[in-house]
Amino acid sequence: MNRELNKLIIKELLLSKQVFLVAHNNIDLDAFASMAGFSLLAKKYKNKVYIIIDDKEIEPSTKSAILAMKSKLNIVSLKEAESLINNRSILYVLDTNKQNRICVKDILDRFKKVIVIDHHSKNPDTIKDANVYIDEKATSSCEIVASLLHRFRVKVPRSYATIMLGGIVLDTNNFMYKMTRNSFYYCYYLSTKGADINEAQLYFKQDLQEYVNRSKIIANTEIKGEIAIATGKQGRIYKSPDLAKTADLLLEFKGIKTSFAIGHLDENKVGISVRSVGKINAGKLMEYFGGGGNKTEAAAVVENKSLKKVYEELQEKIK
Predict the structure, then answer these.
(1) Which of 30, 38, 233, 313 is 20 to 30 Å from 15 by CA-CA measure?
(2) pLDDT digit string, tens, across residues 260-279
(3) Could you give the residue ranges of the DSSP H alpha helices within 116-263?
(4) 31-84: per-residue pLDDT in tens?
(5) Fold of 3-202
(6) Rounded to an integer, what distance in angstroms lies between the CA atom of residue 303 and that of residue 271?
(7) What residues contact residue 129 under an 8 Å CB cut-off, 6+ apart?
(8) Which DSSP state fits 207?
(9) Where are the domains of the chain?
(10) Cα distances (angstroms) measured from residue 100 to each of 250, 285, 292
């Protein structure tokens, strides 16, 4: 763990009275669980902690975790957060470093300081004038937060440990890729705090109809060597998590080292999700399409281009 980050966190938690936590829009389990975990560290230093979530729709596994933890956390909307910010408020951004992916992007100057903790690579949209700490070797933001809780000897209740383990499960596609010695160690650390892998897996119980819909996307998959590209039906609207889970699923098949899932998110937007354990750098590739991520997983949203055009551009970029 970066010593400068350790010093910065302690210094700012001691100086601040109010800590606000935010993650990316379209929040997933890693984003939510990392905020929940970090709240324990902030509370250790007597801070009032607020978790900002402003999504109108939340995918099922994250929604289940939020409902399970709601009574233990101060979860506020963006409007509520704006009324609470004062000159001793600090903002921690977790699981993203991109300004356009956070709901507080227009009020960043109201915070005394902004600190970013993430595992995705930087790009031109990385938050300016912030202290940015990125560990691209980490599987997830939950892994980074677990290391902080361990480093600062924070008491971690079983429920927090379980959802954080769930965050690691999500971002490693059930421990299939990105796992390192540190990753296994912090999974073990969370288990010593009572994390229940069986309970964590319950968050990922799938809706049968959603699985059928993803299967229909996979049915329209083109395979070129170690690369698989699944394309949604023209005119059908998908959710970003559907594309992400489709890309995850494709990577489970023998011989596939890079998987793509593309489809309409609305009439004028096409989403791309990519997973890679091969030569293709997923994050760098998605930067071309205005998105980002890290080497193994990334996504982008392309506006005002047809599904066919996005598919053709993707084909050209991976030749």
Answers:
(1) 30
(2) 999 999 989 999 999 999 89
(3) 141-151, 158-171, 181-192, 197-202, 208-219, 240-250
(4) 999 999 999 999 999 999 999 999 988 888 899 999 999 999 999 999 999 999
(5) inorganic pyrophosphatase (n-terminal core) (3.90.1640)
(6) 9
(7) 108, 114
(8) P
(9) 3-202, 212-317
(10) 29, 18, 12
